[in-house]
Amino acid sequence: MRPLADRLWWVDEVAAGAGVYLWQDEQGLILFDTGTPWHAHAILRTISREGFDPSRIHHIMITHADMDHIGGLRTLREASQARIVCHAVTGAILQGRLHRPLGLGLVGRLIAGPSRFLMKTVFRCIPIEADDLIVGDRMLPGGFQAIFTPGHCPGHTSYYHPETRVLITGDAIHNRARMLGLPPALLLPDRAAAVRSVEKLARLDVGLICFGHGEPITEGASAQLRALAQRLQAAVASQPG
Ligand SMILES: [Zn+2]
Question: Which pTM was predicted?
Answer without folding.
Answer: 0.95
